[in-house]
Every structure is written in structure tokens, then in C-alpha cells.
Design goal:
The protein is of the alpha/beta class. The protein has helices spanning about 180-190, 195-205, 215-225, 235-250, 255-270, 280-295, and strands at about 1-5, 5-10, 15, 25, 35, 45, 50, 65-70, 75, 80, 90, 100, 105, 110-115, 120-125, 125-130, 135-140, 145, 150, 160, 165-170, 170-175. Helices cover about 25% and strands about 25% of the residues.
Length: about 300
């Protein structure tokens, strides 16, 4: 175990004997454990980086990430980043940072937080038990996020903002406190029906609320039903087929029934339109009644 702050130099790769054998730590009062700034190449392999336990620390806490990366192209592989008093890894600015086969856990902020126009690759990691979210993206230009296990985080598994562009696939969301529209779309598209049903069951059982007090459950159904009012006939058939697969796999699930109701109700209002009743044509009323009857 090494108690010092490391600053990675351009072109240097740090390789440990094993991530359980080589540990670099600093007290939370000292800020970042690893700093990477303006590196065009380099990497870090098989090392654990962490903030020391509070009982071992002296002085006030400095709320900085365990690992700070800025405007760099570096590779992380087979590392552990843990016990941060803020985010585990914070990436700022441009650059192409790759994080693979790592464990990022037990940080008081998010596991990985990205800010700026970078093009990160976050692949095949376990990101769990962080006090905020597993991964957050802010204005990322072109992110690849795939094959990660996002588990037990106290807000979301993965939260990208509306300004981020990304390729996300094959991520597993398990036992995170909340769920957002992006995660719902991802899981539904990947036909992870069992996991979606488990989320609904947990939210119903625990009566989960947002911090402002609103119930999560109606938002959850809304996330899974986004866009149904604007769907054309072919899209409706595709959605019906997807829900049918859910029904076949989990016939006792309540959730697929609600999604089917939402689909037909959305189509009913699409037929009717939003005008006053006396402006709606008989043909539109028929479409409304037919779809509501299905619902």
C-alpha cells in the first residue's frame, strides 16, 4: 500500500502486480489520489486507488474524486476505484479515455462522472454501491457504454443528459434505487422483461418516491410508454409483438398489461386529436372508441 498522490506523465503506463496487491491511497483531506492531465497517451493497469477510511484521515475532507482525468487519452484496465468522498472517477474536457474491466464502488458521489466533449469508452466494468449514480454523462460528444454491471447505486445506474450522444448496449441494471427513461428504453429494447418486471415489483413494494415526494411508479410506466401516441401502424404492430413476447415469458406480470393499455389509449387520443369535442369527426370518434375498447 502506497500513501501518496500520483500524477501520470504523458506516455507513461503504470502496471501493478494485481489490483488486490497494489493499493494507492490518500486521506480524503488530500484530494485526488491519481491525477491525469493533458496526456496524449498512457495507461493504468491492475492497481487499486482509494481514499483512506475516515478513521485513518486527518484534516477536513476535500471533495474531489479519487481519480481525476482532464483532456487526456488514457486506458484504465483491471483497476479498482473505491471509497471516494465524492466521485470515483471524474473525466473533464476532451479526450478518449478507456475504462475496461474495472470495479468502481462505494464512492459517495457517482462511480464515473463525465463532463465535456470527450469520447469515453466504458466497457465491461462493475459499478456498484455508489451513493449517487453508477455513471453520469454531461455533454459527452460520443460515448461508448457497454457490457457494464450497474448495481445497487443509490440514485440511477446510468444517467446521460440530453446533450450527450452515445452508443449504449448490453448493460445490466440491477437494484439501483431509481430508474430513468433512458434505462427503461434500453432494457425494453433488449427484451430484459424479467428485470423490468422486477423493478416494477420493487417500486410497488417499497412505495419508492423521488426526493421531491412524487411516486416513481407512474413515471416508470410513462417511461416505458414514451411515444405511443405518435406511433404509426407498423410501429404499433412492432410494439404489440414486443409486449406479446413479454406476456409469453412472464404471463403473470402486471407491467406488460399496463403497457398494452397505454399503447391503445395513446392510439385512441391520436385518432381523436386534441380539439374540442364538437370539432372531432365521426371517423375520428370511431378510431377513438375502437382503441379505447382494446384498452
Amino acid at each position: 500500500t502506497y500513501r501518496e498522490q500520483l500524477v501520470l506523465k504523458d506516455g507513461v503506463t503504470l502496471i501493478g502486480k494485481g489490483r488486490e496487491d497494489v493499493v494507492v491511497e490518500m486521506p480524503p483531506s488530500a484530494g485526488n489520489v491519481l491525477v491525469i492531465k493533458g496526456c496524449f497517451s498512457g495507461g493504468v493497469h491492475s492497481i487499486t486507488f482509494r481514499h483512506a477510511e475516515a478513521a485513518e484521515s486527518e484534516g477536513a475532507v476535500d471533495p474531489r474524486a479519487v481519480v481525476s482525468v482532464a483532456n487526456s487519452n488514457v486506458d484504465f484496465d483491471n483497476c479498482v476505484v473505491s471509497n471516494g468522498v465524492a466521485n470515483g472517477i471524474r473525466i473533464d474536457g476532451a479526450g478518449h479515455t478507456k475504462i475496461r474491466n474495472c470495479v468502481i464502488r462505494n464512492n459517495r458521489g457517482s462511480g464515473i462522472a463525465l463532463f465535456g466533449k470527450g469520447m469515453p469508452e466504458i466497457v465491461d466494468n462493475t459499478i456498484q454501491d455508489n451513493d449517487v449514480s453508477g455513471i453520469v454523462l454531461h455533454e459527452s460528444r460520443s460515448a461508448t457504454v457497454s457490457g457494464n454491471v450497474l448495481k445497487g447505486n443509490k440514485l440511477y445506474g446510468f444517467w446521460p443528459d440530453d446533450k450527450s450522444s452515445l452508443d449504449a448496449s448490453n448493460n445490466a441494471f440491477t437494484e439501483n434505487a431509481l430508474i430513468n427513461a433512458f434505462e427503461c428504453r434500453t432494457m425494453f429494447g433488449a427484451k430484459q422483461f424479467g428485470k423490468l418486471a422486477a423493478v416494477a415489483e420493487r417500486v410497488r413494494r417499497d412505495k419508492t418516491r423521488y426526493a421531491a415526494g412524487g411516486w416513481l411508479l407512474p413515471y416508470y410506466y410513462s417511461f416505458l410508454s414514451e411515444g405511443v401516441r405518435g406511433m404509426g401502424p407498423d410501429q404499433v404492430k412492432q410494439r404489440e409483438a414486443l409486449i406479446k413476447e413479454w406476456e409469453t415469458a412472464y404471463p403473470d406480470s402486471i407491467t406488460w398489461r399496463i403497457l398494452l393499455v397505454n399503447l391503445y389509449m395513446g392510439q385512441a387520443w391520436k385518432s381523436r386529436g386534441s380539439g374540442f369535442a364538437n370539432t372531432v369527426s365521426q371517423e375520428a370518434w370511431k378510431g377513438f372508441r375502437d382503441s379505447m375498447q382494446k384498452a
